[in-house]
Amino acid sequence: MLVLTRRRGEEIVIGDQVVITVVESHKDNVRIGISAPRELTIRRGELLDEPARERLGLQGPGPVNKTETPKQ
Fold it and tell me: Who contacts 64 (Cβ-Cβ below 8 Å, separation ≥6)?
């Protein structure tokens, strides 16, 4: 995994068609903008099913079960 430090307004270019821009950041929250061709599918990692997460080498929590009640 490539880890980069960016500031608001700075960009990351992937290939010839994808540009990721840091829109704003506050403490532990970062908003990004993604410019990419319409035919390119972009998904948030936490929404992928487990086989797709493993195939991409993603770690951390997977899909959230919204029908489950929080434990107290």
Answer: 46
Give the Cα separation of 66 and 49 in Å (integer): 14
Return the structure tokens found at 63.
């899909």
Which candidate, 57, 53, 14, places its Cα nearest to that of 37? 14
Q: Do 23 and 33 touch, CB atoms closer than 8 A?
A: yes
6 burial level (CB within 10 Å; 0-12, 13-18, 19+):
middle
- Helix (H), strand (E) counts: the chain: 1, 3
User: Is the pTM of the predicted complex or chain greater than 0.85?
Assistant: no
More confident residue, 55 or 65: 55
45: left (phi over 0), alpha (psi -120 to 50) or beta: alpha
